[in-house]
Amino acid sequence: MAERERRSTPPYGGVFVARSQVMDADDVRRAIWRMAHEIIEHNHGLDSVVLVGLQTGGVGMADAFAEALGEIDGRTPPVGTLDVALYRDDIGIRPVLPEAVTDIPVDLDGAIVVLVDDVLFTGRTIRAALDALNAYGRPRSVQLAVMVDRGHRELPIRPDYVGKNLPTRRDEMVNVSPEGVDLGEVVKS
Amino acid sequence: MKHLLSITDLDRPDIELLHKLTDSFAEVSRRAIPKVPALRGKNVVWLFYEDSTRTRLSFEQAAKRLSADTMTFSVSSSSVKKGESLRDTVLTIEAMGVDAVVVRHGSAGAPWQIARWLEDRVHVINAGDGWHEHPTQALLDSYTIREERGSLDGLHIGIIGDIKHSRVARSDVFAYTALGAEVTLVAPPTLLPPSLEGWPVRVSHDLDAVLPSLDVVGLLRMQQERMTEHLVPSLREYTSRYGLTRRRVDAMRDDALVMHPGPMNRGVEISAEVADLPRSVIVDQVRNGVATRMAVLYLLLGQGPEKVLGSDDVIVPELQEVLG
Q1: Among A143-147, B10-14, B244-248, B310-314, which is the least confidently predicted range?
Q2: Testing the interface with A: which of B1, B64, B322 to mutate, by most A Cβ within 10 A?
Q3: Nearest chain A CA: its distance from B245 CA (Å)
């Protein structure tokens, strides 16, 4: 079997090649710090706030937010992770496999959920995430924090907190890590 | 993966991928609302030519948690009684527009035959064919051991009882050894298959000698309906030599697991109290069975046509969508 399934796990048969760096490590850290302040400002504190990082790119970022929020406010909100594969709208069109086990540590009824992801593109991942959250309760509100908004939305979804707006071509690729944000292409291996 | 017919079609990375997927589906099963929309609109039919309670219920639960629609074709209430052939039955079901057929049949090889008759887009899952194979049982058994011990590498696993008539034993042997375990079959000579050529196992007729070295004690149902063949002198004698009694548990390693695919004959292959000991993972096997079958159904039905990934034109935007 499995040649195909193995190809469908990262790096999906391609290798990312960076062309230019658009944010360096300091820029990423400052953006996290600014967005953390915005989260506190927007919600008048951190009461009921739960951070949920989307697998896989949002998980490390959610942890970075938790750390920053803890430093600023003295309290660290609960952090969960969410894998949206089973809620995607392209199941059956191409291979979609869960990357990791979802872990939501608290009941989301009445919570303010801040979804965290690295790159916002078509918006379909976020659409799936909104569906997935329903299985864990009925949040009071759901907000979205992303490091990069690269445009090309296909659904009426917008972020509440943005690290950087980055105009891109559809065939480009954005790679986010704590070391920085790179714009480049995927080259088939 | 097109069909799941035999555990031997899967190599170690395949089984490990399915185990990893099973982790995700086990989490779905633990949620307040244990249901995902992943297989909406897919239609799965159960084609059961042999009695089955737990396997059918387990598949049914798995399909429903994935939001697939299901239909049951059971022989006792169907046109098979009126003399319809297997081929005609399969083609009739296909014409109704199903995406997968889960087959249990008394004859070894029936799922392969059915897979040949069906058109390309229909997936076939073997849920037990005669004495031959029961691949989802092997996946859930190996998953249960992995859940308890982290890995099967280097474990010594005993499979005890009626190996000859057991499709579970056959599938388990190949899954366990593919994952790096050593397997010893323990049974009286009359309950072993006529030939074990190609089976990567050791054989013993003395349970008490093997028991202290086992990490996993896998028991099989003593199929009482086969007793007419006089393969063992009596059930009581079988119990005294091969049954897992309280006394034998004391000879086991402290961390050894006790497994049984069900249904159990308490007092024959396993004593009533042993089945309820904490080291018995029999209930975990049932629970993991649902998650395992979700993984199998999802892997077969939830993936797109082969050509989508690897085609040159669309991969990059797709990629960002997956990663971002």
Answers
A1: B310-314
A2: B322
A3: 38
The complex scores an ipTM of 0.83
Q: Which residue of B lies nearest to A90 if distances are taken between CA atoms?
A: B304
Of B14, B23, B323, the CB nearest to A2: B14
- Give Cβ neighbours of residue A173 (< 8 Å, ≥ 6 apart): A16, A183, A184, A185, A186, B316, B319, B320, B323
Question: Which residues in chain A touch residue B121, judged by CB atoms under 8 angstroms apart?
Answer: none
Read out DSSP for B131-172? TTB-HHHHHHHHHHHHHHHS--TT-EEEEES--TT-HHHHHH
Q: In this structure, which CATH number among 3.40.50.1370, 1.20.1250.20, 2.170.130.10, 3.40.50.1110 belongs to the domain B135-281? A: 3.40.50.1370
- The tokens describing B19, both together, are 């185990």
> Measured between CA atoms, how close is B112 to chain A, in angstroms?
16
> What confidence tens digit (pLDDT) does each residue in A27-44 have?
999 999 999 999 999 999
Query: Which of A13, A57, A96 lies at the smallest CB-CB distance from B323?
Result: A57
- CB contact at 8 A, A28 and A147: yes
Tokens of B86: 């297997």
- pTM recorded for the entire structure: 0.89
- Assign a CATH topology to domain B7-134+286-301: Rossmann fold (3.40.50)
For residue B252, the one-letter residue type is: M
Number of domains in chain A: 1
Q: Show me where the domains of chain B are located.
A: 7-134+286-301, 135-281
